Amino acid sequence: MPAPGERLRTLWARLAPLPGGKTLFSWLLGRMTPYSGTIGARVQVLEPGFCRVALRDRRRVRNHLASVHAMALANVAEMASGLAVLAGLAPGVQGIVTGFSITYQKKARGPLIAECRVSGLDVTAEREQEATVSVTDAAGDVVARATARWRLRPPKPQ
Description:
Layout: H1 4-15, H2 21-32, H3 34-37, E1 42-47, E2 50-55, H4 70-88, E3 94-104, E4 112-117, E5 127-136, E6 142-153
Antiparallel strand pairs: 1-2, 2-4, 3-6, 4-5, 5-6
Helix pairs in contact: 1-2, 1-4
């Protein structure tokens, strides 16, 4: 079975160019990772080391203050981090999130975009890697910044 990043890249390359392909990819991703699928985010761009995910503002992701719930913001940020990192790893490299922090800058309302760009994903020894995510609103204002800390491990020698 191919590595998760390889499966993601292959599935994205196959579906993204098709009409409705990004929506289908996002739905399938939600089936593979059910908790992340609960927010209904849509992957807009996926490249090795980069991901952009959109989150619509709707009742199911809102809090009592009529803004997007803090955990929905954390969820979309973690999703962007995971996709960017996994899509950038070489086959056989293992990665798992070991820490996550998020800072909320302002109330999040309207459509949101979570972006993560991470470099230096060549893994020759077990190490930590940070992936920073910005979540912005329709005006381009940052509503949240998150950092996911990843433990990366190269393939075991055969």
